[in-house]
Every structure is written in C-alpha cells, then in structure tokens.
Design a protein that fits this description.
With about 800 residues, this protein is α/β, with parallel strands linked by helices. The chain has 22 helices and 22 strands. It has five domains: about 190 residues, no CATH class; about 150 residues, Response regulator (Rossmann fold); about 140 residues; about 70 residues; about 150 residues, Histidine kinase-like ATPase, C-terminal domain (Heat Shock Protein 90). Strand 19 and strand 20 form a beta hairpin. Helix 1 packs across helix 9.
Length: about 800
C-alpha cells in the first residue's frame, strides 16, 4: 500500500515535521509506502510560489492508494472554497483524509480546540476569579478560529457572565508575519480606543497572545496580577517568555497518526466518521497565575490531603495482590491521568513498578522502568504527564500503604529529579541536533552552489546524498521541447542499483516510471520526499529524495538550493547559447556590412560611370544636332537626360541609406542650433524660390553623430519646404517640444499639404512615395533615412498631421542633454 502526504509551506516547516513524524511512525509500523509532496501557496496568480504547485498535477494515481492532506496550509491561499475543492476533485477518486482541518464531504481529523478554549476560559473564571475576560479572535475565514470564539462565548454563558462585545477584538490576522503586531494593536484598542477594563485575555493563538503580552509589559501592566493571558499552539517562544505562556499544544503528531489509521480503514472499504476530534492538554504556566502544571497538581494534592482526616489502615497480607490490582485500575482512571496523552499500558507499568519499589524498598528496578517509559518520548507535555502520574500514584499508595509515607515521598522525589534530568538531556539533544544539522546544511548548500552544469550538479548530489546514506534520489527536469521536438522529462540521479540517466517522453510525469524493479530498495518499500524545482515563472521539475528521518529536516533547504542552482545553470546554458547565436549574428553582420561596402563601391563607381557617359553623350548630341533634329527628337533627348538624372539621384540616395544602415560615426558633442542654421544656409536657394521661412528655435547640445544629425535636419526641413500648398509660402519651425531626464523631442513643423492618417506609417518605408514624380520630385528614401538615423541613435520618429493642415515630424532622441534649455 502507498499513501501520499500533501503539505504546504504556509504551514511552518518544523510544524510540518512534527505532523510528518506522526505519519512516519504509523506507516513504518504498518509497512506502508509513503510519498511526501510539499508544494507552494496554491492558486495565487503572480505569487512566486504558484509554480511550485504544479507538483500536485504529477501525483501518480496508479501508484498511490490514498491521500492525507493538511488543508490549513492550502485553504488560506485559495480565491474561494470552490477553487480549493478544485484541488480535491483533481485528486478524486482516491480515498482522502483531511488532517488538522475540515474539508466538506471528506473525513477530517481536527484538534478539539473548542473544548480546549472552553476549559481555558473556565479556568480563568473559576481558578483565578477573572470576571472581565477579553478575547482576541482569529480570522473569520478559519473554522478553527470560529470554534475557539464559540467556546469562549459558551464558557461565559455557563458561568452566567454576559458577553461584552467591547471585550472582543477581531476577527484578526494571526499569521507568522503579522500575528505579534496584531496582538499588540488589540491591547492598544482595548486600552486607548475603547477604554474598557479587563483582567484577562484569551488569545486565539500564541502569536496574538505574545504580542499582547509585549504591549502590556511596555505599559507597565503586570502579568498575571493585573491581566492574565493565555494562548493556543504552545509555541517555543511562548514557553520562554519571562512569564511563560499558558497554552495548549497543537496535537499535530496525534492528529496525523489518527489520520493514517483512518485512511488505511477507508482504503480497506471500512466506514469511518466524517469528523474525528483529537483532544490536547492545557499547559498551565505563570501567565495565567499558575505555576507549572506539575507543581500546581502537586500543591493541590497536598492541600487535599491536609484538609481530609485520614485514619491509618493496617494492610493485610491476604489478598494484597488483589488490592494492588484494584489500586492499579483506580490509578489509570484517576482524573489527573485519564484521557491524557500517556498510553494506558505505560501507566499500568509505571504504577506496578512504583508500588513494587515502595513495598520492596528497592528503587533501582523502578528507575529502570521509568527510564524505559520516559525514553519513548521527549515532549514537554509528556514530562508533565509523568509528573501528574507521580502525584496520582502517591495519593493512591498513601491510602494503600499508609505506613510507607516517607518511602513514597522519596520515590516521588526520585521521579521528579529523574524527569528534570531527562528534560535537560532532551533540551541538550535538541540543541546539539540542530547545531549538527545547521552545519551539515551549510556544507551541502555550499557544495550544491558550486555546480556550474547539469553534470557537475549530478556529481555533487551523488556525493552529498551518499554522505546522508540516501540510496534513492532523482532530479526530474522537464523539457518543454520548444524548438527541439516533443516534450519530455530528463532524469538524473541514483536508485538502489546505481546511477540513473534516462528520458521519459511526454508532458505527464508518473512516479511509477521510476519506482519499478531495480529502483526500489531490497524489500520493495520506500518513503520519498517530493518537492518542486521552480522559479518565479517556470516549473523546472521535481526533486525526489528517499526519506531518512534524522536528515529530513534539511530536505527543504536542499530543495531550495537545488532550485536556485539549477536555475543559474539553465541561465548559464541559455547565456552560452545566446552568446553563440550573437557571435553568428555578428559574423553575418560583418559579412553584410562588407557586402554593403561592396555595393557602395559599385554604386559610386560602376553604376555611376555609365550614367555619366550617357549624360556626356546627351549633352554632345544636344549641342551638335539640336538644330537638325525635329521637335519630337529634342523632347526625347530632354526626357532621357531627366531619367538619367533621376537614376543618379536614386543611386546617391541608396548609397546614403546603405551608409546610414551599415555604420555610425563617432559620437561627439553636437550643438543642434548651429547645425540647424548651417542646414538653413545650405537650403537658402530653395527657401528663396518658394518664398518660404525657416524659424530655428533654441535647440540643445547632445552627444551624437554630427554627420547623421545634419542629414536628419536637412531631409526634414527640405521636405517641409518641398511639400507646400500652392499659393501659400511655406513656414517651417524647428524647436524642442518636451524634455525629460532621459530624452527630448525635436520637432520640425510646417504649414504644408499634410498627410492622411492611413499613410503616416508608410511614408517612412524605403521608396514609398505618395505623389507622382511630376508633382513633387524625390526618390522616396529621405524619410527612411531619417528613421534609420533616429534608430541608430536609440530614438524614434513619428508624424502628426491632417490633410491641408501641415505636419509635425517629431524625433525622440535620448539624452544626455549637455545644455539646459530655458
């Protein structure tokens, strides 16, 4: 049997690991294959992590028998419930169990946070006589938050306390990024805006509670004497406050264990409940006015004994074992231990060893049994459970063995000392393990970061995975096949037999293609971590690693670094391919420029020479035979001369266009005002012939090719003079219309014939003419040359015009402008 576990990075990685260990222990015991899919924030357009979620499209429904999904990490990032159900429907018809949150129509295992908050609120009211209890409510979209608010309301009602809306703050955001600040702001609202009196705060989670504590302490308000504070989730930060936070540990571990058992039953066709609540245990600490839970329970036990008169009972030897057996049953049903997190069989072993040690006055067998029991778990709430079990066992044994009071107290003291030693040892082990994992992660990331190709990345991964004892791992890289054929998956890695390099055709990725025969461990069982390799815009593939429990904490860091390094490698390969293409293009450009230069030589020599001879012979014919030839022959000779002259002009224009296209002169500081005046002087005869006027405004100094800038102005001003209306002298204005830090607009404006809108783009094409040669002379290349000059300077040219209303040719050129305009 194979099950998949779907988690999401909106759930903190350490929290996910606690949940994972609950699953791991069960699947190991039941000999079940496990695939752990860890995606990103699902269905968030534009978000960096949306590409991560393509991983869920690759779940092999032929390979997987059932799915456990943690909806809390996903649902907050969906547009709607329908959108979230789209993911669930995609996974159907596989059996699914929700872990940690409800999904409509799906069997769900959830924390019994209603009962926890109910008891927490009642504790403040009854044990500490708090009558004005404020509540910091979680997001309205969270069913868990709503359950906790409902529990708060019901607890007040049970004790005939009226719900005061002014004491309820929210709904509030309680996530990792904003929770602390929101909790502090809630206290500010209560004190400064609403100006209400309150003596306790029940926060929907620890982040809100910690933020509230910080704001209270900043204002000099004592915790818990002035205001008691409680939270939920039992975060590490809350446990280490100056006044440790009373809280409820989220039962992620137990929830996921239960989810696996339910999923196995569901796969087997058994009927399972739609909702399975999992109880937790309140950890009372100083923030609510209590000492730690074990000390509080011990004090309560002493007080109870001191208030009740006890009559010594003489224990009879006959039937003593029966009494021990009855006492053992009473112990497992004691209110301090029943319904807790300690297994009943462990409690029975503990009580039997305790009672035997007291009766035989031998502590070593009892301590050995205690060591064995406590070593099974190192969670703080388990230590607290053993403290309570010790107090309960002491009470029962004092009734059963009243003559052993001193021995019983000695044994109870031994338990507390031993538990303290275990607690210190556990903390040291955690810190030591974290330090080791941090150092190991640093070294692995450094190694992966050195990869500069897929081959070196593959070699480095082989080395690092081997050091971790990982026998199976894959880099499955998706190749879209653009421009190179069909899409496919490239596989690098290693299986139980040896290195793997293969290709799987098609867009779909089925894990079963890898996990067949030689790919599996000897017994054919596997536990795999499956994470996405992605960038801002691209899903590059998947990272698949055999799970080693002691190292699984660092898999997410490895996945992140592999994603980053892989993207760098792909960019480097793309750069090399682009550089190669650019080199080819550069070679082609050099060849093209050489051809243009050859064309320029041909145009300036070989093509011009026959035309010059035709003109010479035409002139000689005109001088020698003009009087002999008839009128028709002379007209033909005139037309011949004009045609040859147009051909010369056309060749000259083409030569000019090719020179502008092929190369650009050195950039120099150009005073456009002076350049424009020179052009005006060159066109003086045309200006006089047309009775026109050219007005030059104050133009800037720029860095440009002076020859090409001169040609640009000459072509534009010349055209403005040429295309004027009949009986209307042309007026041409040259000025700067708009400037910015990076560009300016040079405008040549006239009052000529104008241009229809449909032709305003065509006129910049080479050889494009809108009028017959008889109306306006020209080659149709001048504006194409202007556009090429603007392009070569990193600018552009456009025209704004209406027929009969003149035209504005606007050349946008980049800066810098070295002279400030008025």
């Amino acid at each position: 049997m194979t099950i998949a576990y779907l988690s999401n990075p909106t759930t903190p990685y350490i929290g996910t690991m606690i949940a994972y260990h609950g699953i791991w222990e069960v699947v190991s015991g039941l000999d079940i294959n496990l695939l752990w899919y860890r995606g990103g924030r699902h269905d968030t357009p534009g978000d960096y992590e949306k590409e991560a979620n393509l991983i869920f499209n690759f779940i092999d429904k032929q390979q997987v028998d059932g799915i456990i999904i943690a909806p809390v990490g996903f649902r907050n990032f969906f547009k709607s419930k329908d959108s979230f159900m789209g993911l669930i429907n995609m996974l159907a018809p596989l059996p699914i169990v929700a872990s940690g949150g409800r999904i409509n129509g799906i069997p769900s295992v959830i924390p019994d946070s209603y009962d926890d908050i109910l008891k927490m609120t009642e504790h403040l009211v009854t044990a500490h006589n708090r009558r004005n209890v404020a509540f910091l409510r979680g997001p309205e979209s969270s069913e868990t938050a709503n359950d906790r608010y409902r529990a708060y309301c019901d607890a007040l009602a049970r004790h005939d306390m009226k719900l005061k809306p002014e004491l309820v703050i929210g709904p509030l955001e309680w996530d990792l990024a904003r929770g602390h600040a929101v909790g502090g702001a809630a206290v500010t609202t209560l004190l400064d805006e609403r100006e209400v009196k309150f003596d306790a705060i029940v926060a929907s989670n620890d982040r809100l509670a910690i933020g509230a504590c910080a704001e209270l302490e900043k204002r000099g308000i004592d915790i818990p004497d002035d205001v008691a504070v409680t939270g939920y989730d039992d975060s590490e930060e809350g446990r280490h406050l100056v006044k440790p936070l009373t809280s409820v540990p989220h039962p992620q571990y137990q929830i996921n264990r239960e989810a696996v058992y339910l999923l196995v039953d569901l796969i087997a066709g058994k009927k399972i409940p739609m909702t399975t609540p999992v109880r937790s245990e309140i950890l009372y600490r100083r923030s609510c006015g209590c000492d730690s839970s074990p000390i509080r329970d011990l004090e309560a036990a002493f007080e109870k004994r001191n208030q009740s008169s006890r009559t010594p009972v003489v224990t009879k030897t006959t039937g003593h074992e029966n009494k021990i057996g009855d006492a053992e049953v009473s112990f497992t049903r004691h209110e301090a231990v029943s319904g807790g997190i300690l297994p009943a069989d462990s409690l029975r072993i503990f009580f039997r060893a305790f009672s035997d040690g007291v009766r035989n006055e031998k502590c070593r067998p009892f301590l050995d049994a205690l060591d064995c029991l406590v070593n099974r778990s190192e969670k703080e709430q388990v230590y607290a459970g053993w403290q309570r079990a010790t107090s309960a066992a002491r009470d029962i044994l004092l009734d059963l063995l009243p003559g052993k009071l001193e021995m019983i107290d000695d044994f109870a003291h031994l338990v507390r000392v031993r538990l303290h030693e275990f607690s210190l040892h556990s903390q040291y082990r955690v810190l030591s393990q974290r330090s080791r994992l941090f150092g190991l992660t640093h070294l692995i990331i450094q190694s992966i970061n050195r990869a500069y190709s897929l081959e070196t990345l593959n070699n480095i991964m082989c080395t690092e995975m081997n050091q971790l004892g990982v026998r199976i791992w894959y880099l499955a890289l998706f190749d879209s096949g653009e421009g190179s054929g069909e899409p496919s998956w490239q596989i690098f890695g290693r299986n139980a037999v040896g290195p793997v390099v293969k290709q799987i055709p098609g867009r779909e990725f089925w894990l079963g293609n890898l996990l067949q025969g030689e790919a599996l461990p000897e017994l054919g069982k596997y536990r795999l971590f499956i994470g996405p390799l992605y960038t801002h815009e691209n899903q590059m593939g998947l990272l698949i690693i055999e799970i080693k429990t002691e190292f699984v904490y660092i898999y997410e860091a490895i996945r992140t670094q592999v994603s980053s390094t892989l993207w760098s490698i792909l960019l480097l390969e793309r750069y090399k391919a682009t550089a190669s293409t650019l080199q080819k293009k550069a070679a082609e450009l050099i060849r093209s420029n050489q051809e243009l230069e050859q064309f320029a030589y041909v145009a300036s020599h070989d093509l011009q020479e026959p035309l010059r001879k035709i003109i010479v012979f035409n002139d000689r014919l005109d001088k020698t035979y003009a009087k002999i030839l008839g009128q028709q022959e002379n007209e033909d000779a005139t037309r011949l001369r004009k045609a040859v002259t147009r051909m010369q002009s056309l060749i000259t224009s083409l030569l000019e266009y090719s020179r502008v296209s092929s190369k650009m002169g050195a950039s120099k500081r150009v005073k456009l005002s002076e350049l424009a005046e020179e052009v005006k002087s060159d066109l003086e005869q045309r200006i006089l012939a047309s009775s026109g006027t050219v007005q030059i405004g104050q133009l800037p100094e720029i860095d440009a090719d002076p020859v090409q800038m001169r040609r640009l102005l000459q072509n534009l001003i010349s055209n403005a003079l040429k295309f004027h209306r009949k009986d209307t002298p042309p007026i041409v204005r040259v000025y700067v219309a708009k400037t910015s830090d990076s560009s300016f607009e040079l405008v040549v404006q006239d009052n000529g014939i104008g241009i229809e809108k449909e032709f305003q783009e065509r006129i910049f094409r080479i050889f494009e003419r809108l009028h017959a040669q008889g109306e306006y002379e020209g080659s149709g290349i001048g504006l194409a040359v202007c556009q090429k000059i603007a392009d070569r300077h990193g600018g552009s040219i456009r025209v704004e015009s209406e027929p009969g209303k003149g035209a504005r040719f606007i050349v946008t050129l980049p800066g810098p402008i070295t002279q400030q305009l008025p």
